[in-house]
Amino acid sequence: MLDVVADGPVTLLTLQREERRNALNLELCQEIHRAADAAVADGARVLVVTGSGTAFCSGADLGGVYGLEFLEALYGMLHHLTELPVPIVAAVNGPAIGAGTQLAIACDLRVADGTATFAVPTARNGMAVDAWTIRTLAQLAGTGPARRLMLAAESLDRREALARGLVDRPGTLDEAMRWAHEIAALAPLTLAHNKLVLNGTTADDEAIEQSFRAVWASEDVREAATARTEKRAPVFRGR
């Protein structure tokens, strides 16, 4: 259901429910949550999330989305991804519908191929998404496109999503992996701090201040200074 492959400092998580166009069910949400934690614990510096086949994620599996257990697993997983201390790149390889768009925006950066589309058609099925989803869509894509997605049940193709800022780069999974490896060479503590501030709806001022001070007290700061003196690329160790 979820394929996990470590490629050096980058771990690739691939949704594998092609028969359901990678729709999220309870088990898959739980697997993503566990696999992301395990990858970080094993030292991954960047995660990449993609779908197998021709869809990134077609949404929630309509066979079982009405239970409280599923909703807790879905939103627990989505919000947890935003709180992990490593960048996450979504390689959107086709439609990202409903929970698929939510999964994409729970990632920190999005690379999309030419078949990518984004939609949250809750107005067509009588469901609802949480406030975080709607507000994050508005922050990333702008209020106008977010209103069209949420109030008119429209969709955004790759071209418009890229123009609006919902997609960061055009490209395939290969491009997403190349970018992830470039990011993995950057200073991990700095990236964790920056992500905390960017996504820090649950982070208090004290946590942000502690993160800020930890970066400045790190060995990586001294390594960067030494590398500048020695005219070489720094080797960051996240400590």
Relevant terms:
11 helices, 6-stranded mixed sheet, 9 strands, 239 residues
Describe this structure in words.
- The protein is of the alpha/beta class and 239 residues long.
- The protein has two domains: 2-183, 2-enoyl-CoA Hydratase, Chain A, domain 1 (Alpha-Beta Complex), CATH 3.90.226.10; 187-230, no CATH class.
- It is 49% helix and 16% strand.
- The chain contains eleven helices and nine strands.
- The protein has helices at residues 26-41, 68-83, 99-106, 122-125, 131-141, 143-151, 158-164, 173-184, 188-198, 205-216, 219-230, and strands spanning 2-7, 10-15, 46-51, 88-92, 95-97, 109-112, 117-119, 155-157, 169-170.
- A six-stranded mixed β-sheet has the order 1-2-3-4-6-9, with helices on both faces.
- Strand 1 (2-7) and strand 2 form a beta hairpin.
- Helix 1 (26-41) packs parallel to helix 2, helix 2 runs parallel beside helix 3 (99-106) and helix 5 crosses helix 6.
Outline:
The chain is an alpha/beta fold and 239 residues long.
Radius of gyration: 18 Å
Q: Main sheet, how many strands, which sense, barrel?
A: 6 strands, mixed
Question: Order of helices and strands, N to C?
Answer: EEHEHEEHEEHHHEHEHHHH
- So, the CATH homologous superfamily of the largest domain? 2-enoyl-CoA Hydratase, Chain A, domain 1
Secondary structure: number of strands: 9
- β-strand percent reads 15-25%
Kindly report the average pLDDT value.
Answer: 95
Structural class based on helices, strands and sheet pairing: alpha/beta
Q: What's the CATH architecture name of the largest domain?
A: Alpha-Beta Complex
In whole angstroms, the N-to-C terminal distance is 35 Å
Under CATH, the topology of the largest domain is which?
A: 2-enoyl-CoA Hydratase, Chain A, domain 1
The total domain count is: 2
**CATH class category label of the largest domain:** Alpha Beta
Question: Which regions contain 5 or more consecutive residues with pLDDT less than 50?
Answer: none
